[in-house]
Write a structure and sequence with these properties.
This protein has 294 residues and is an all-beta fold. Helix content is 3%, strand content 59%. It has a single domain, classed as Autotransporter beta-domain (Lipocalin).
Length: 294
Amino acid sequence: MQKIKYGRKEIKMRNATRFLLLLPSLLIMASHPATAGDWLLSKNDIIHATGLTYSTDNASWDQQYKLRRKCSSRNAYLFQGVEYGYSYYHTLFLNTSLATQNCGKNHASGIGNVKIGIRGRIDNEHNGRAWELTAIMPTGYSRTKALRLGNGVPGIEAGAFYSGRPQGWADPFASYLDAGISVRYWFGAPASQTRGYLGIQKPVSSTQKISFRVYGNFSWRNGKPEEVASNQLQTSDYDQVYLETRYNHHLTPYWSVTASLGHDIWGRNTVRSTYLSISISHAWWSHPNETHDF
């Protein structure tokens, strides 16, 4: 047992209880094409996506980046998201997830954070070069349980994203890179983060493609401890690197299905998780005779 001073109050804490379970919400974002951030819709286009993610873990990295055993966790998330082409220059989006988390005797379920945002063009002549601004809003879930569905405070994220997806007369089967970087700020105790990814995508046919990405989330180390339960302290301050491979298949011009598999390879104050995600998207095109990719 050790004592930690927080303001005028002393709180006893066991080191083994000091870990985060914020990763699953990130996995939903990372595993779904509707939140890639690099592509804008045409005016009045709409895409709705729903996906199911299952993740499991039995170990977490501590403050010194050492991997330690923990209770076996089983988590499931039902993602819902929609994007709307407001104009040639801007796309609006909204998403959230219904979550259930289990780790030993601890359990949490409910609606996770709601994210609403706007995406805009950086290059007016080419798609795939975009900026994005997102507001993150909690939904009233408990902030004092050992398992939480999110930080429980509002946040904001701003970033820039790039996709080298072939356009115009370019070879439609050429491999291409995509990348993104953003900053996430929380209005409260959680630490701010710099977040990013780098990936390569390969179309294997006119309707199928595979991709591989490496993601990194790095703390600014400005988080403050929060008491979440009797004799427990939780600090929303973590670093994380994980890999993801993805397969996407366009079933029709309006329907697309995506399967993703991801695994954490390095971290601090976060769990080592493996996840599988399957999602399906439906599009309503304002110009159905044009060629679309989503």
